[in-house]
Description:
The protein has 12 helices and 27 strands. It starts with 9 loop residues before the first helix and ends in a 10-residue tail after the last strand. The chain is an alpha/beta fold. It has 3 domains: 10-262, Rossmann fold, CATH 3.40.50; 274-343 and 472-547, CATH 2.40.240.10; 348-461, CATH 2.40.240.10.
Amino acid sequence: MESTEKNSNFITNAIDQDIKNKVYTDDRVHTRFPPEPNGYLHIGHAKASLLNFRIAKQYNGKFNLRFDDTNPTKEDTEYIDSIIEDLSWLGIDWEDRLFYASSYFEKMATYAIELINKGLAFVDDSTAEEMRTQRGSLTEAGTESPFRNRSIEENLQLFEKMKAGRLPEGSRVLRAKIDMKSPNMNLRDPAIYRILHTKHHSTEDDWFIYPMYDYAHPIEDALEGITHSLCTLEFEDHRPFYEWVLNNLDDFKSEPPRQIEFAKLNLTKTIVGKRYLKQLVDEKIVDGWDDPRLSTISGLRRRGYTPEAIQAFCEAIGVAKTNSTVDIAMLEHFIRDDLKLKAPRLMAVMDPLLVTITNYPEDEVEWLSVPLNQENPEMGDYQTPFSRQIYVERSDFMENPPKKYYRLYPGNEVRLRGGYFVTCTDVIKDSDGNITELLCTYDPATKSGSGFTERKVKGTIHWVSKSHAKAVEIHEYDYLLDDAESISKETFLSAINPNSLKVIKALAEPAVLSAKAFEKFQFIRNGYFSADPKYSQPEAPVFNQIVPLKSSWKPQN
């Protein structure tokens, strides 16, 4: 199988080398994505899953989805269902290759017995604290457990008791016997099985022992015929143990999988740590795992992000060997780029100011034809009502404007989007001096699309007809954090932005009332918005702000 992509990276280079050296039969390439079902996936998982899927597709290979459900104390079927939904939405297809680590529990236990019989594993009675002390440190070698030299027969008997549920939870572990003096802490006799008397979501009460992830991971890969196990960089120091497991089990001597590490995705102003995300959800600081302020895939989907934009972003950031942080504005750029030709452009006024057009007939309603998206004429036009009284944005008027201010002010003329030129003639204020209404006149000869007007104006503003305006709820978002890199377990909650959500009661033209869940719009000059699937009701839509219209980030040429 040959690569079909022009761009290469260190992972594809390694795979190309394996193909050249005939490492795997028929030059096969088989990857996998192995999420733990203990939370919802986030944007970092999107990068990892898309990378594994694309690599397999690039080489006409296979891709597996496998749930590493080896810790029943933290796992739930809710997470399994959400992960399947999120990955499907991202466009990832594992065909019929959906697997669970729990399906291999019997084989993993058999392989543990093989290691015991080879004198490569032992049952340890040491407490967790004693084992931490035995491990030593980065500068000091570890010390061997006093139970390390138990006989094979005694280890087999004790492991069988562990397996049968005849020993108390947490009383013993099975450890690999490697090297307590190794400079790699992961090779200092790591635990490979622990006792847990906990019901499993799939196997229920069948098991009283559960494999540790580092032991289960290589076995799962090998049993599924994975060729290239692509992991994030934190697993680099775990690779020697991954290889130790495969090298010491007879079934995997031929064509063992190869682990290759890549840098995980870190975004500015964004929380990607699953522990932090779960804390926000559990303490109800956010509106569930799908809160649009979160970096979870379900949160991004609810906010209005598109799978195509996430795919393009992950492709653009590429694959690196060293960790770095990507500006979140780059991700937002890809959202805008994806929506600019897709999203209809309608009008909504966030902070309404009444305008009365004094020379327009009082009872007349005119339906104007307005382009749905001026950058994409193929989307066609829609009809919006125009009448004597309209609302404009309060920020589109200044009584004493600075130079080069082209919107409404006394005596100035602007174009109403899709409508006429209007000139402000008077300002009405209440007893406190607050502006409550503008009086304007319109020029009937300046109707948009009429092809008749020689005058030009520099300012165009959006508006909605007062008698037709519909109340909508807008959720405007700021980042949850100012600086994601500075958070810690101790300072995490105090770093949360209390103003990350602003609820706005806006007025919109009637076309928005038909919005279905997840339907996306650009509200002129206010940003991109998506109909919220959780709170929108018929005739009472709620819109989540996807991204503002502008960003400081620019693509590099």
